[in-house]
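Example record

The entry below shows one chain as it appears in the dataset: sequence first, then structure tokens.
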Amino acid sequence: MFFFIIIAGFILPWVLGIYLYKQAPKLFFTIAPITALTAVTCNQAGSHMGLWKVHHMPTVVLFDSILLDFGIFTIAGVWFSYLLCYKKKNPVLLLVLFISGMAAIEYISLLLNIVDYNESWSFFYTALMYVAGFIILHMTTNKLEKLGVFP
């Protein structure tokens, strides 16, 4: 499981991220830190409160999700903002696609037993976290655009 998470959750997203960096480097100095901080905060809080567990390194809680936090979650947020701000795609369509996509990845992780939920947590709550996260990211991207930070 650990190598799968390294490859699918960190390396592959950053291969796509390097391409995106060449297109819009400002996103990596603005949006990437915001999405990484959000992911680390949410995942560490959930792990330490016992709401979920990632099964690849159970002895070191910090490492349970850090590759995912700095990988797929960060790069998904940057792609979302890139498509929203630089490519002027429909915000509602982007929200639906990115929330559904991240929720689908989460669901597959549940099916593969990569992540396990406590009885007090459910997939519905996780989906709500993605909804809130992408809506906040949408508002942040709009604000940075109004401030003239990008494009």
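Notes for this example: The two ends are 38 Å apart (CA to CA). Residues 2-146 form one domain.
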